[in-house]
Amino acid sequence: MHIAFSIFNEVNELSMDIGPDLCNSLLAAVASSGHLDYGHTMFGEMSRSGVPMSTLGFGVFIWKVSRNAELGNILGLLDDVGKRVSDINRSIIAVLIIQGLCHASRVSDASIALEELTVRGFKPDFLAYRIVAETFRLTGYIHEAEKTLKKKRKLGVAPRTSDYKDFFFALISERLIQEAKELGEAILSGKFPIEDSVLNALIGSVSAIDPDSATLFLEFMSEKGSLPTLLTLSNLSRNLRKHNKTDKLVEVFQLLSSKNYFSDLDSYNLMVSFLCKAGKVREAYVAIHDMKKKGIDPDISSYNSLMEACCRENLLRPAKRLWDEMFANGCNGNLKTFNTLICKLSEIGQVEQAQQLFHQMLEKGVQPDATTYASLLEGLCEELKFGDAFNIFNMSVEQDVKIATTILSTFIFHLCKKGQFLASSKLLSGLRSDIGHLDSHMIFLKCLADAGEVPIAIEHITWVGEISPSMIEAVYTELLTSISATMKAEPLVKLLRAMHEKGLIAEDDALKDLCNR
After folding, report:
1. Does residue 260 register a pLDDT over 90?
2. Poorest-pLDDT segment among 145-159, 253-267, 377-391
3. Cα separation of 425 and 239, whole Å?
4. In whole angstroms, how far apart are CA 65 and each of 97, 100, 119, 263, 330?
5. Percent residues over pLDDT 90 in the chain
6. Is 472:504 a contact under the CB 8 Å cutoff?
7. How many beta carbons lie within 10 A of that of residue 448, not counting itself?
């Protein structure tokens, strides 16, 4: 914010015109962020230069100023703007001033401001009067609250939903979400009308900072007989999950279910997906059951979401039953389906079943990807089925060299983890030049160093130098980087010393420093 304000000052000193829209956006931003000293400076410069004030720029500025400034100073700023021609919405400005005063518990000033605003042509609408009356009520001044409501009926004007709609969208487009939230809550508390498009925008944007408040907007929307768009519900669901509000997420889906919101495959899949991501497996099963009762057949997306959740929660038997049900219903699995089960089976040591699924996917014409191969190779190595692991890796080479290159480092690591150093060396030395790469060799060398197998490491790095002399320098640089980043540097230092003794690397300052430790 300081940088943006500095740029504004520089531009102003150069007498450059950056336009009223940008000036007002920056005025709103500095005020929203609490930098009211910058805001006052900007306001002064804009007034002197004749830059037109907008409802957004002046509105957010005066809103924040009203929380701390004396009422006379607030009205002075208002008079300054009122003298000039501008297209600001005066009723909205009045609401923002009242909102600011009441937020600071200055309800007496707010009551006086209602009259002062009217005199200056900033006629407060029903919302402004309602904010003052509610603040009086909450502080125990019931008589004053009733007097204010009488004034509202006599002097106030009805809020214009189209004006508020424009202002809300301006706030949201400038990412002034807190301000949009506070104004939206004021409108909701008074049960004033608000368009569905605005509610959708509020629910989606406010849920990122306050999902509980966004849920209130949703409830208000449903009470007036409207429903959110799928995009809005998706944003709300994602943010409820992000904030660990999983029970609230279930409540939202229950509310919408009672309104018959879920009526097609897309809406049901959204609910099932987010329930599964939130770990609400039982509720997701209920949703699938409801789908079927309505004659909506779950598709591959439905099954994949539920199967992932079952595997994540270690519910393997239900996952397998789901698998059988899926194929029985004529829904063939895709890559994601196979990977979900293969990964889980490999993880828990049921690698033979994982292999069976692997061959089944090939029979059905589903091409494995790097995830498939990597999880299967890890599982096979853990179960000491090295022959099968090499066969699987060779299949990846035949399928796609890029996949083989991607999984090679993982395969080398798991082989070395089980002490298969010679097998790893043989694998690397037998690969085509377009498959083996620096990362794989580095993982192998680090594993050898950690295991104290320096002779094998020297033999391997010598071979690397013979087929690719330039890689020796790259290996040396990577080893130096690794030494500086690890707490267990001694094995790697021993390897570098041995490389130097064999004449594989020349002595430089970095190596001298290491050898003298």
Report:
1. yes
2. 145-159
3. 48
4. 8, 8, 20, 48, 64
5. 69
6. yes
7. 24
Question: Which single residue is written with the structure tokens 């450059």?
Answer: 16
Give the separation between CA 302 and CA 380, rounded to whole angstroms: 30
More confident residue, 469 or 40: 40
How far CA 206 is from CA of 105, 158, 210, 407, in Å, comes to 24, 26, 6, 42
Q: Which token pair is 169?
A: 């969208």
* Rounded-to-5 percentages of helix, strand, coil across the chain: 75, 0, 25
Residue corresponding to tokens 């701390």: 68
CB of 187 within 8 A of CB of 72? no
Half-sphere exposure at residue 357, Cβ-oriented, CA atoms within 13 angstroms: 27
Neighbours of 121 (CB within 10 A): 10
User: Rounded mean pLDDT of 499-513?
Assistant: 71
Q: How far apart are CA 2 and CA 414, in angstroms?
A: 51
Sign of CA dihedral 135, 141, 147, 150: positive
CB atoms within 10 A of CB 23: 24
Nearest 5°: phi and psi at 157? -120, 155
Average pLDDT, the chain: 89
Query: Does residue 16 carry a pLDDT above 60?
Result: no
Nearest to 112 by CA among 65, 88, 147: 147
Residue 183: which of 102, 256, 115, 239 has the closest Cα?
102
55 token code pair:
């409802």
What average pLDDT score do residues 452-461 get?
A: 84
Give pairs for 188-193: CB < 8 Å, separation 24+: 188/216, 188/217, 188/220, 189/130, 189/134, 190/126, 190/127, 190/130, 190/131, 190/134, 192/126, 192/127, 192/130, 192/159, 193/159, 193/161
- Region of 365 please: left (phi>0), alpha (psi -120 to 50) or beta: left
Q: What is the DSSP letter of 487?
A: S
* Nearest one of 322, 273, 269 to 297, comparing CA atoms: 269
